[in-house]
Amino acid sequence: MREKMHWTSKGSALLLAGALLALPGPLTAPHATATAAGAFGPARTVAGPVEGPDPLDFAVVVDQSASLAEKDLARETEAAALLSQGEISDRSRAAVIGFGSSEKPGQSPVNEVCPLTVADAAGRERLSECVQQLGRRDAARMGPGTDFPAAIRQAVTRLTEARPTTAKAPAVPKVVFLLTDGKLDVADSPEYGTDRDTRQSNGARRLTEELARARAAGVQIWPLGFGSEIDRSALTAMAEGGYRGACSDIPDSVPRMRVVGTSAEIDKALQETFAAARCARIAEGTVGKPPADLTVTIPPIATDGSLTVAKHDPKVRVTYYDPANRKVPVRGEFDGSTFEVSGQDGPVEALRVKDPLPGRWRVHIEAPEGHRDREVAVRAIWQGRLRSDVTLDPASPRAGEKVTVQVRMQTRRGVVITDPRQLAGLTASAEVAGAGFRPFAFRLADDGQAPDRKAGDVRFTGTFTLPAGATGDLELVTRIAAPGITSDRRPVHAQRGPDVPVLTAGLVVDRVTVHPGGTVRGTLDVTNNDSAPHTLRLALQDQTPGAELTVAPTPVTAPAGKSTRIPLTVTLAPGTALGELGGRIAVVDTGDGDTVLDTAFLDVLVVAPPTWWDRWWKAVTGGAVVLLVLAVLAGIRLAARRRRRDLTGVTLELRDDGRSLHSLTVRRGQSEGGTFAFTVDEPYGEAPMLRGVHGTAASTAHVLRRTGSGELLLRPGGGAQVPVRAGEPVGLGDHQLVVRGARTPSPRTRDLPWSRRPRAPRRTGSGTGTDTGPGPGTGTGAGTAAAPGATGATGGSDTYDANF
Fold first, then answer.
1. Can the peptide bond before residue 291 be classed as cis, meaning omega within 30 degrees of 0?
2. What's the mean pLDDT in 391-396?
3. Closest by alpha carbon to 217, among 244, 197, 235, 239?
4. Parallel, antiparallel, or unpaired for β 317-321 and 359-366?
5. pLDDT of 227
6. 184 near 24, Cβ under 8 Å?
7. Rg (CA), the chain
8. Spatial separation of the C-alpha atoms in residues 665 and 671, rounded to whole Å
9. Burial 566-594, CB ≥16 within 10 A → b, else e
């Protein structure tokens, strides 16, 4: 089995062993579990908020064989580059240990090539150099066996070395990643006994002891086996024999063994193993040969990330672009993010980003001729470190009182997490500690079941009853458990309230949408059971960074022995950024050490103010429609009026003693404004003729006009107008004029009162009629019109009136 050890597989594993350092995020150690998950014990101080990723102490323990290929040495070099360049937390410590067996004098079962080293800038350089010793194994100093007990003992000893701590620093998680392609083999190691069977038996027993020691020290063991002769039961026993604490309630975060079949699978398997162990997440990007654009996506919930580019060739040059397609600096700050590029002259390059812009990042790679034959891969390793925003109701509970706890999450950028899909698989809990009772934990849920008000609103709610023995200060710590997500574990401090509350307060704030510079309204209801008034203060807490808010009124006086309702307002500064506004309002009793009486979340969405078009578009559009309708109606009326007044097609016939002397038809364009001017030419020795005139000659000519109601009026030679009926003669000097082809006058004219109707000659049927003046004429039988110069036509009775 020793001769079959496949170092290509282990070389591949070493390459990814360096990637372990690239993953941020906390892993629960025994003491950290007691703090966050609620193990009983005295009240204690919990670590305050830490902005950067949590550190991790880990050892990569590699099973070495007697032979190495040149390509394995190259893979080890790349692994060293990952060790030195990929780490995000500069507070982590790492060790690299090779192991085999000790079978003769001068040999050691372990080869500690990299002692436990802080992975800061200088430490990464040291790791990059020392890890190369794995590829220079001296067979004279290490036997070819597989001494698991010695390897685990060496790793546990190094990981339990004291690190500088403070009273507020939580315990740092400890992990051993064991890469092996074999099984326990100490048959030729004299230290385990005098014969092969005894040595193997003693080796198994000692392995059990070393695993128990690891478990007691809080060291997890994650075996990764590869090859054809894996002892699966042994690897499972090692995973289950170490510390079984987990970084979350997700089953995959509990240590377990994993077996892969080929070297090609090791890279992916090792990354997934580490991600499960540390509750981190890895986003796989694209692969390509230079020149090319590679992409990888960072989710909105990520707060710390690293874009790791496996270049293989230091000649490859990399340029990074954020999701807004902007080139980011190699170091420094840009648009709220902090950047640092390292490893530009090595085979692996990494861009560390604090508070990255979420979305698809573009990585552009270039290389000179002769250096473009190897594929380059990019991946994003990220952690979402969230800030918890906690409210207690009531804020100062009494002993035996039921308390509701509500928690929501936001990133360091102040973005409130509102999409439940970003927190898939998340579990939340809280621990309460204080004087007079043992700490206890309870569950928080976002399932819509009481006390949670609505499922999926990303508000985790739970309840607890304050023990009757509580005597004073209280401390509540929330814990979020999910792959790739951690919370800041900030304690929320409160005090046990008096048995009979002196003051009770209730805050209600409107959930509204406002514009920058707008106002949010709410109410404060206060009941003061004391004999003296109390002065209260309204305070803003956990505001979104950069938000400028003012709350009024403050201070507030609560009159003695009364219940009072007080309107309150929260005013936004004119320059308030758009988006969801986080934070809360607290009402505190200034006369009782600023005791918090109640709190309320600010559920405010800030949107851009409406433009003038948003305000007036309906009125403008409506007005335009009305004007258009009026214009159309006016046009229709004008066109109708013009049609009624038009004289085109009307024929004027000149008569004398019943004989037709001449006729003239009005052509299109001759009737201007409903009038037609004409004159009677009487050439010497010829019959009179009608002729249309215009211009100055029209002032003395005869004028035929049609009114808007369709009436015809004739003004002979500048005289008074007289009405004209179609087909009936009217006097025109020494002649008569008959108009034909004219429409009947409008009925409205006929309907005028008699006193307002113009008079016309009246025909009678009794022979010769006589014009008797303005009054109506009468007669029967045949006769003639008694108009001057006119001869009445015979016929039946006919009476008509015409209006001027």
1. yes
2. 86
3. 244
4. antiparallel
5. 64
6. no
7. 51
8. 11
9. bebebbbeeebeeeebbbbbbbbbebeee
Amino acid 603 reads: D
What does the pLDDT look like over 663-683, one tens digit per residue? Answer: 988 888 787 778 888 898 888
Buried b (16+ CB within 10 A) or exposed e, 93-113: bbbbbbbbbbbeeebbbbbbb
pTM of the predicted protein model: 0.54
272 vs 726: CA distance, rounded Å: 106
Using DSSP's 3-state secondary structure scheme, residue 346 falls into coil
Of 273, 271, 233, 267, the C-alpha closest to 253 is 273
What whole-number percentage of the chain has pLDDT above 70? 74
Q: What is the SS3 assignment for 537-604?
A: EEEEECCCCCCCEEEECCCEEECCCCEEEEEEEEEECCCCCCEEECCEEEEEEHHHCCEEEEEEECCE
Alpha-carbon gap, residue 642 to 610, rounded angstroms: 48
Query: CA–CA separation, 258 vs 230, rounded Å?
Result: 11
Six token digits for residue 599: 């709190």
Closest CA to 757 of 767, 748, 770, 768: 748
Residue 304 pairs in a beta bridge with: 354, 383
Angstrom CA distances, 165 to 26, 91, 209, stand at 16, 11, 29
**How wide is the angle at C-alpha 38 spanned by C-alphas 32 and 40, nearest 5°?**
100
Among 508, 583, 511, 601, smallest CA distance to 547 is for 583
684: CB partners within 8 A, 6+ apart: none
Q: How far apart are CA 270 and CA 267, in angstroms?
A: 5
Number of continuous H segments (helices) and E segments (strands) in the chain:
10, 44
Q: How far apart are CA 655 and CA 95, in angstroms?
A: 132
DSSP-derived secondary structure for 165-182: --TTPPPPPEEEEEEESS
- Distance CA(609)–CA(2), nearest Å, equals 75
Give first-to-last CA distance, the chain, whole Å: 131
Helices 232-241 and 148-159, packing angle to 10 deg: 20
CA distance 390 to 71: 54
Is 146 in contact with 185 (CB distance < 8 Å)? yes
Under DSSP, the state recorded for 34 is H
Residue 202, both tokens: 């003693």
Residue 652 CA to residue 662 CA, distance in Å, equals 8
CA–CA gap between residue 645 and residue 405 (Å, rounded): 87
Q: Which residues contact 168 (CB under 8 A, 6 or more apart)?
A: 45, 46, 47, 48
Q: What's the pLDDT tens digit per position in 540-573? A: 888 777 778 889 998 999 999 889 999 999 998 8
| Cβ count near 17 (within 10 Å) | 30
Instruction: Give the largest CA-CA distance in the chain.
Output: 168
Q: Across residues 445-468, what is the average pLDDT?
A: 88
Q: Per residue in 361-374, is it b (16+ CB within 10 Å) or e — as a string?
A: bbbebebeeebbee
364 forms bridges with which residues in the sheet? 293, 319
pLDDT in tens, 223-242: 888 666 778 888 999 999 99
Q: Token digits for 428?
A: 């939340």
* Contact status, residue 359 vs residue 370, Cβ threshold 8 Å: no
Does the pLDDT at position 396 exceed 80?
A: yes
Q: Which amino acid is at 317?
A: R
Q: What angle do CA 264, 269, 275 make, to 5 degrees?
A: 145
| Identity of the residue numbered 146 | T
What are the tokens at 562? 């009364």
Query: What burial class does residue 463 get, using C-beta atoms within 10 Å of its C-beta: 0-12 exposed, 13-18 middle, 19+ buried?
Result: middle
The pLDDT of residue 413 is 64
